[in-house]
Amino acid sequence: MLPVWIPGSYMVREFARNIVSIAAHAACEPVAIEKQDKCTWVCAPTQGPLTVTYEVYAWDLSVRAANLDQTHGFFNGTSVFLLAEGFRDAPCEIEIVRPVGHQYAKWQVGSALSAKNGSNTAPVKDFGFFVARNYDELVDHPVEMGAFEHASFDAHGVPHHVLVTGRHRADLSRVASDFKEFCEAQITLFEPATQRAPFDAYWFLLTVVSDGYGGLEHRASTALLASRDTLPQPGETKVSAQYKKLLSLASHEYFHAWNVKRIKPARFVRYDLSQENYTKQLWFFEGFTDYYDDLMLCRAAIITPLEYLEIEADNIARVIAQSGRRRQSVAASSFDAWVKYYRQDENAANSMVSYYQKGAMVGMALDLTIREATQHTRSLDDVMRALWARRDGDDQSPVAEGEIERIASEVAGRDLSDFFSNVVYGTEDPDLAALLPTVGITMSWRNRGAGHTLSQVGSELPPASFNVKWGAEANGDARIAQAFEDGAAMVAGLSAGDIVIALDGLRVTAHTIERRLKNYCVGETVTVTAFRRDELMTFTVVLQADTQRICVLTITDASPEATARRIRWLGA
Ligand code: ZN
Questions:
Q1: Which of the residues 175, 253, 406, 518 could staple to 222 if both were Cys, CB 3.0 to 4.6 A apart?
Q2: What is the structure's pLDDT at 29?
Q3: Considering the entire predicted model, what is its pTM?
Q4: 276 burial type by CB count under 10 A (0-12 exposed, 13-18 middle, 19+ buried)
Q5: How far is the CA of 161 from the centre of ligand 1 (A)?
Q6: Which residue, among 320, 289, 552, has the nearest Cα to 436 in the 3D structure?
Q7: Strand order in the sheet with 149-155
């Protein structure tokens, strides 16, 4: 059987579709092999060992599958290793063979997978034999092969390695020194007394490309894909907006080494790799990880508190801009990740909420609620540590539905059932406007620049808007990518996919439409000419105030008390 999904990415991907040939042999004789369902094969009974030979098409340059060409090789075991039924708990041994040819002489192996012989904490390994205690461990150590560069550092005594595949001119020593800071901050968060990391060594397997962004967490490594522009250049000292994204991604996946790889939904203790595994808790395992990723960068002083507040304000604005948050709770969004979050269509903004984005808001709200309830003596950190303290000898801490809520209430010394039923199982927004002042921060809103001249950004007058997300066709035409519920365009009968070609008889393009709208005021009527498929249609749109607004978090209380509370939260 080949898994249909990879833990950490909650979508059925049918990896078996990439198996292009398969055959079985026993004692040098062919054995009949037949497909039983989309991911399972059955062999005829044999005497003695059975050998199954198969070819995998590996051309998916993402963190989730497998990719092999002359420049490098990368694979997740879930894409390439068939599981023999009944042998899931048996030790596994694999051999990775260097490709033939002088151009591969410098290739090495980068992985947390244990080499059968030799050091297992060194940054790179030789081709040859590797072992895992069982199938689940085998497929939880992605493998990179190639002539990659690497930089290493120790975080609280544990070796960490950053391996970079893809052409770049980055300052990897700076990457290593920044990564070290957030890694140590996270180890200290979970283990303030011992500062013990739950692995012997850790690998960041980073592939840089022209454009791309993604990460997938594993027990002792993470696979990351990012634009090469996110890497800091030699001589650069400031933290660019791009580099912030890479730091945030790496910090996120590293936090998962505890939160979801070890502290995990009870249902994830033994994944069913043949079908969807449902949990209502991704608002915690993903959302709270999203809350902590940037918070740890701030506490590690890689970004400033003001930069941190900017990131969180942006996240709040994204959540509030989506009316789908009124239709779906983050608990329901977690459960339906398989068919909604991971398979978003043009109606997503109206029909669903992100358990990452709103989950991060819930994390902040819960943190501030606990701080306030305990006179700022306890926090969400204590909830994370309480969950970590329950782990077994294998560092596993299964979390049943309802347990996070119970532990949070214990830490707060107050029953928080209402909080969770409103903002996690219900569709209310966490009341951050009321909670942030407890740490001397004020939340406010201002209008976007679209529809305004630059000098009017933030003006009291909201810009006139269709309340859509615009996209561009290859020829430059303006396409409605998303039509927001009850927005001016939707009310007028326009839909996602419509190509808008003229406003009041004047041609517009994706490039000019927002500028043209600056000539109009909220409440004005405009005649819109648009194509739906190849049919020309006319609509009468009454322009509305733009519902997409900018959230601003400002430090407004500089008293010693408020400052002390902020330092406890964000670091000095
Ligand atoms: Zn995540």
A1: 253
A2: 95
A3: 0.96
A4: middle
A5: 20
A6: 552
A7: 149-155, 158-165, 202-209, 221-227, 213-217
